[in-house]
Amino acid sequence: MMLFFPGLASSQSVAQGEPREIVDGLGRTVRVEHAAQRVIALYGGFNEILDAMGIAQRIIARTSNETFPPCILNKPGIGTHMRPNLELITGLAPDLVLQLAGRKTAADTVRQLEERGIHVAAFHPSSFEELFDAIQKIGVLTGEEAAASRLVAEMDGRLSAVKSQLGTVPHRPSVFFEIRSPNLLCAGQGGIVNDVINRAGGRNCVQSERKIVRMGEEALVGLNPEVYVVQRGPMNTRPQPLEERSLYRTLRAVQDGRVLFVDERLFSRPGPRLVEAVEQLARFLYPEKMRKNRIKE
């Protein structure tokens, strides 16, 4: 479900000539001389934020694998998220570039673009609170604080609705979130997927504080999760059904039929649609509770 609000971008936006300043997710002060009108996002979640704020028309390019929102498909390609073409970006003369922090290559891109005189803000949300903060700061840099605040309020309201529907949960089922297989990678406590699981009424059975955890199959069998979530997407293109994986057949989640396949871009991407991931997982974990007052699809 796409979060879009016609007219969300206020006609009363702050004048373009007024300087805008924030501290980004890397602790860097980012200052633009006017509200950014030409924006390039090197991570798709930021395109979704701009779209949900009602200012997708300010997106002037896209990375090669991005197709959402559909309105960016006719924009010029500027390479990939991890290997953007700096010459193409410079030639497009953006007012602002948005980057996802967290990897050294991303930090290198920030530095290289700034050396070319381009303003770059980097964020690395690992919780909904940090995602809301990033949205608000993008609102400042684009001169659309009111639109950003309304988007945050709408998302937070839907999260509150899930919490209200779940009510008191005496037992939170243990959840394992598969990022990739084979060579199994899973979601640890350090990423935003962990917050999705918690807000949906589950409990991440992987205790590592890392965002992404490499795990052997024997260790997984030892965890024996009650629910197994498998993401499909660029990182896990063709996940094998769990029933066809020898050791996995013994897992409680497999034996009880509590296996859920989900869209990677919905569940692992910090952006407006992440609320939909919480709603979807909550319906899977607590179908009776969620059915009583079903959230609008």
UniProtKB/TrEMBL annotation:
One of its GO terms (biological process) is cellular response to iron ion. Signal peptide: none annotated. This is Iron complex transport system substrate-binding protein. Residues 38-289 form the Fe/B12 periplasmic-binding domain. Pfam families: Peripla_BP_2. It comes from Desulfobaculum bizertense DSM 18034.
